[in-house]
């Protein structure tokens, strides 16, 4: 739980080069192969393949996002672990949001 009493998720985004994100978040939206996946605390366990697009998450009321190129997400009730490659900044290979 957050200090405001809202349930939270742990989010880790791992790339071949680094741990890109490690945060406690309110929700996560992932670019699944068949559309966007919305993840809230308590989500049922799931392994999901990711496509290209925006990985979005909300932490402290602020939305953050990363451009990703495929990968997998291990989704658990208490958190999300994402293995992906980040798109290079300034490229046009990710559709606009």
What attributes characterize this protein structure?
97 residues, mainly beta, ATP Synthase, domain 1, 7-stranded mixed beta sheet, globular
Architecture overview:
- With 97 residues, the protein is mostly beta strands.
- The protein has one domain: Sandwich (ATP Synthase, domain 1), CATH 2.60.15.
- Helix content is 0%, strand content 63%.
- The protein has no helices and 7 strands.
- The chain has strands spanning 9-14, 19-25, 27-32, 35-39, 46-59, 62-76, 79-86.
- It has a 7-stranded mixed beta sheet, with no helix packed on it.
Helix content: under 10%
The CATH class label is Mainly Beta
Assembly classification:
single chain
Beta-strand portion reads: over 45%
* Helix and strand run: EEEEEEE
Strand count: 7
Radius of gyration using CA atoms only: 13 Å
Q: How much is the average pLDDT?
A: 89
Provide a brief overview of the structure.
The protein contains no helices and 7 strands. With 97 residues, it is mainly β.
Walk me through the topology.
Layout: E1 9-14, E2 19-25, E3 27-32, E4 35-39, E5 46-59, E6 62-76, E7 79-86
Parallel strand pairs: 1-7
Antiparallel strand pairs: 1-2, 3-4, 3-5, 5-6, 6-7
């Amino acid at each position: 739980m957050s200090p405001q009493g809202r349930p939270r998720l742990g989010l880790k985004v791992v790339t071949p080069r680094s741990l890109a994100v490690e945060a406690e978040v309110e929700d996560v939206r992932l670019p699944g192969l068949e559309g966007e996946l919305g993840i809230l605390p308590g989500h049922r366990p799931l392994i999901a393949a990711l496509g290209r697009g925006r990985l979005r998450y909300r932490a402290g009321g602020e939305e953050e996002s990363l451009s990703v190129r495929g990968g997998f997400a291990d989704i658990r009730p208490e958190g999300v672990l994402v293995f992906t490659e980040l798109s290079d900044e300034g490229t046009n290979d990710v559709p606009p949001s």
